[in-house]
Design goal:
Transferase(Phosphotransferase), domain 1, Phosphorylase Kinase, domain 1, elongated, Rossmann fold
Length: 801
């Protein structure tokens, strides 16, 4: 069956005013929802008018919390509206299924308030707000549905409802839909559901404005917080009477721990006199943010402004004094509380749109926010690696705070649809899982740089009272003005962080494209340098092909911006692994740490460098510092095992390797570290088992294969070792740099001449593996240490004595 260009696929639901179907729009290759006016109502002018009015009202709106309408038309006498297809359930169904946590209720309420604010700013009043007309998608995004009873109010130049229209014309405009309302109230099964959320003025048949929606909103919020309807009675007439006369039971009687500030918000929404309610949905959103943060000052800030008479002025003056005293006390109470937020974890933002092609965006924005907020003095911000340990995991703020030792947690979600970008961020106190701050940012994708700056500024406002001019500059610093270049940079970082051969090469491509878009983009050069600097380890490419490119990119990055710690650290790596200029390497490592003492990677790489040149106590200290800064990074955790192994502290190395495996059992290098240390303790079966696991996990990474072959060799398993040597030789013939690894196996076999021949060839090619396999300190090279040729090689490389 088709309706115009749309192919009907399956029914989704049926209601009194419409039937909804899943359909396919082949022109745009997307699934949509189509609402069709039933044949029984097609000839009803009132029903058709309402149907058209809903389409017109929604089409005037464009907001992430309002159901989007794509098209409207008729086909063979059937009227239909084409809308976005939603996956999830109504708020009504969610409330019926299980009690709702306060935090989730506030989140949903904020989304409703923002959607209502957008509608009211366009002069549109919904008039039928209830849980069944609010839809919660699978990613937790809320949409306002069914504007079938909506009316449009004329606005003045400032966007407020115009007062030019007379009460008579207002009443006439309202009553055009009155017959429909009356029919809805008398239909079986709909009276309680509809009547329970209507405002007193709507029940009376009086003209209504946007404040009627605010009353309905209050009834919904009450139900979310308490778990019961605000005005539920046995009959429709009793419900109508309760709406006009009674206050709902106190939220404190619901048996739930509802904050007084949230209770105040609900009561203000449910004022019988609309002049005493909140005067805008925007005010509600602000009040909810304040109330959910636990602010004791919130109730004094939430009051609407009722009409004042002369007789009430003394009372108001007294109330004002009390309010000021309360506010002053609240400020004094809040100041140490706010000041106590001195540590923060920015958890990976959720890619709520579900498109895997947008994953780079959610990860990239998270990483950028980590880097930005890290610039605020006095604020400890957890590193990327530790924060991303929680990616895809359902954990609460208390757990994160306890495991990472932070006071607050920032979470968020991102939805990308075409050029539209919606970002929701929430700051939560990790001590008691309470909401501190939250906001939604709706921008174009091209505005991504601006919105990140805005989020960073908003967060800083909650973490510190004031920032100096220089601190503000650092917080909102842009490394490029080109949004397209920035997007490419984020894609590059996304693949770099995956740390596979293919992903690193993809990352290089994106960094190069970013540089093409903006040749002055220092961060893109730094990313390119980091990629080339580690490429040899993942692909086996010769160092002579990768390190000169890494060095050139790092130097260019520093020419553009000498304050980039990551560029200094990468330049240090090229001095160490390829130039063999150890003094220059140490100078650059120290400069990176000076620029950012909390940069874990600089301490991590510096520790490995110190280990490789034999300064073991310093190496262990740097590795422990990196671990303190980034305790959930498996790579950094494993470095503690590596430096302990080189220092010949094998028990300590085994303990560190096993702790790393607990963090990530699939990290192959941790199994290598474990296997090497077990080998030195002559626990050969256990060592070989660990190294076989490393080979399996790494898909036959050169270092893992060589480590297994060496363990086989020293444990009298020559038959097993030789095929692995031949495999490494074949890979060397195919252009992979396996020379030092082959030499290592021959050293284990006791064939020193063969080992030295391979090492000399590696020296001529300036192989980074001479440092990677710790030629100076690794105990596996001990059989060669008395050989004058080996000592001469160490001297030629430039190792300090």
């Amino acid at each position: 069956m088709r309706l115009g260009p749309y192919e009907i696929r399956s029914p989704l639901g049926t209601g009194g005013m419409g039937e909804v179907y899943r359909a396919r729009d082949e022109r745009l290759k997307r699934d949509v929802a189509i609402k069709v006016l039933p044949q029984s109502l097609a000839a009803d002018p009132d029903a058709l008018a309402r149907f058209e009015r809903e389409a017109t009202a929604v089409a005037a709106l464009s907001h992430p919390n309002i159901l989007a309408i794509h098209d409207f038309g008729t086909h063979a006498g059937t009227a239909y509206a084409v809308m976005e297809l939603l996956e999830g359930e109504t708020l009504g169904a969610k409330l019926a299924a299980a009690p709702m946590a306060q935090r989730q209720a506030v989140d949903f309420a904020l989304q409703v308030a923002r959607g209502l604010s957008a509608a009211h700013e366009k002069g549109i009043v919904h008039r039928d707000l209830k849980p069944e007309n609010l839809f919660v998608t699978k990613d937790g995004h809320l949409k306002i549905l069914d504007f079938g009873l909506a009316v449009r109010r004329p606005l003045d130049a400032a966007g407020r409802e115009s007062t030019a229209a007379s009460d008579q014309s207002k009443a006439r405009n309202e009553l055009t839909a009155a017959p429909t309302v009356e029919r809805a109230l008398t239909e079986p099964g709909t009276v309680m559901g509809t009547m329970g959320y209507m405002s007193p003025e709507q029940v009376r048949g009086l003209p209504v404005d946007h404040r009627s929606d605010i009353f309905s909103f209050g009834a919904i919020l009450y139900e979310m917080l308490s778990g019961r309807k605000a005005f539920s009675r046995d009959t429709a007439s009793d419900t109508m009477a309760a709406i006009m006369r009674d206050d709902p039971p106190e939220l404190t009687q619901s048996g739930r721990d509802i904050s007084p500030a949230l209770d105040h918000v609900v009561k203000h929404c449910l004022e019988k006199d609309r002049d005493n309610r909140f005067q805008s949905a925007r005010d509600i959103a602000f009040a909810l943010g304040e109330a959910s943060s636990g602010s004791a000052a919130a109730p004094t800030r939430l009051s609407a402004q009722p009409p004042r008479s002369n007789a009430s002025r003394p009372l108001l003056w007294t109330a004002g004094v009390v309010a000021l005293v309360t506010l002053a006390a609240a400020v004094l109470w809040l100041r140490p509380r706010a000041g106590a937020i001195d540590s923060l974890a920015v958890l990976p933002f959720v890619n709520a749109g579900g498109d895997p092609n947008s994953e780079y965006l959610s990860d990239g924005i998270t990483e950028s926010l980590i880097n930005s907020v890290s610039q605020i003095p006095g604020i400890k911000v957890v590193s990327r690696a530790s924060a991303f340990h929680y990616k895809g995991k359902d954990v609460d703020a208390r757990t994160v705070g306890r495991e990472l030792g932070v006071r607050a947690v920032l979470t968020g979600r991102i939805v990308e649809r075409g050029d539209a970008l919606s970002i929701r961020a929430e700051l939560v106190d990790a001590r008691d899982d309470t909401h501190v701050w939250g906001e939604e940012y709706n921008r174009r994708l091209s505005d991504i740089l601006a919105v990140q700056e805005e989020i960073a500024r908003d967060i800083s406002g909650k973490l510190r009272q004031r920032l100096t001019g220089e601190e503000k500059k650092q917080l909102t610093r842009r490394y490029t003005e080109n949004a397209e270049a920035y997007g490419l940079y984020l894609r590059g970082r996304y693949h770099w962080n995956k740390r596979t051969a293919g992903d690193i090469q993809k990352g290089i491509g994106y960094f190069q494209q970013a540089i093409e878009k903006d040749p002055t983009y220092a961060l893109a050069y730094a990313g390119l340098a980091e990629s080339y600097a580690i490429l040899y380890n993942y692909t086996g490419l010769p160092s002579s092909e990768t390190f000169p490119k890494a060095k050139a990119a790092a130097v260019k990055a520093l020419e553009l911006d000498d304050t980039l710690p990551q560029a200094h650290a990468t330049l240090a790596l090229t001095h160490e692994k390829f130039d063999w200029d150890f003094s220059a390497a140490e100078k650059e490592f120290r400069r990176a740490i000076e620029l950012d003492p909390s940069y874990p990677t600089a301490h991590h790489w510096y520790g490995l460098f110190l280990s490789e040149i034999g300064r073991h106590e310093e190496a262990i200290a740097q590795s422990e510092r990196a671990y303190e800064l980034d305790p959930l990074s498996p790579i950094i955790s494993n470095a503690r095992a590596a430096v302990s192994y080189n220092a010949r502290q094998y028990d300590r190395a085994i303990d560190a390797a096993r702790k790393t495996i607990e963090l990530d059992k699939n990290l192959n290098i941790s199994w290598v570290s474990l296997g090497l240390s077990l080998e030195q303790k002559e626990m050969y079966p256990e060592s070989i088992a660990a190294l076989e696991e490393a080979v399996r996990l790494s898909e036959r990474w050169i270092q893992a294969v060589a480590a297994l072959a060496h363990a086989d060799a020293v444990s009298n398993r020559r038959v097993e070792a030789m095929p692995l040597v031949e495999e490494l030789k074949r890979r060397s013939e195919r252009g992979q740099d396996a020379l030092v690894n082959i030499a290592l196996v021959y050293a284990g076999l006791g064939q020193n001449d063969e080992a030295m021949a391979w090492l000399d060839e590696a020296y001529r090619g300036r192989s980074a593996w001479l440092l990677q396999l710790s030629l100076k300190v690794d105990p596996r090279w001990d059989p060669l240490r008395s050989d004058a040729r080996f000592q001469d090689l160490l001297r030629r490389i430039g190792f300090p004595s």
